Amino acid sequence: MKQPTICPKFEKAISLLSQRWSALVIYQLLSGSQRFSEIQSAIGISGKVLSDRLKDLEHQGVVKREVIPETPVIIEYSLTEKGRSLESVLREIESWSQLWVKTEA
Amino acid sequence: MKQPTICPKFEKAISLLSQRWSALVIYQLLSGSQRFSEIQSAIGISGKVLSDRLKDLEHQGVVKREVIPETPVIIEYSLTEKGRSLESVLREIESWSQLWVKTEA
DNA sequence: TATACTTACTTACATAAAGTAACTAACATT
DNA sequence: AATGTTAGTTACTTTATGTAAGTAAGTATA
Prior knowledge:
Two copies of one chain form a homodimer. Chain A has 105 residues and is α+β, with helices and mostly antiparallel strands.
């Protein structure tokens, strides 16, 4: 079963953003370029999945990976222009969440 | 590992929207209330997963389920106010996708 | 010199989520 | 009684994610 009447670009965007962790990784990188372990501890993702996601996002042109030959080597991840352009989407989600999401407590 | 420094409301919103299919179901319901099988064929989701998602979304107060005692019985799904308020998020994603997503072809 | 330490991963294995197809309940029609 | 319809559910397979230990490349420490 697969006869979507939905715009393929929109579908692709949705599948990018609803890949688990991807939106959080992008959100995290909105505050500037960061290293693997910084992202990992900021959002609480496993190394394996973070590694997968960063590769995905790099292939989709959302994230850029840069090797800085310091000692020890530093690998910095940052957003491309395409990635930064998702800020408006994430800000929308952020403000929606403040209005509508209740934290049970 | 789990020490997120991220706002819990935002995280919850992200986890709602990055549940696979949820955003597409909500998007589909933006065009008006619909029956199970309509949603199913519009977005190409299996009955099992659609059933799960609709229950989830109902519990989160995003979707409303209404039984209309016609013959045969009609079950209509629609967005609540909370659900409709996600329109801005989905429109952002939609316009982002038009600018940035390339369909390979 | 050997051992330990760091970062950025990868591998192996376990669990959870999603896909597929067949099946069911509650009717109504033929 | 047999068939059809809608809105699901069930059993089973495949895929994705989580967890923990391991690795490579290089530096620092004993």
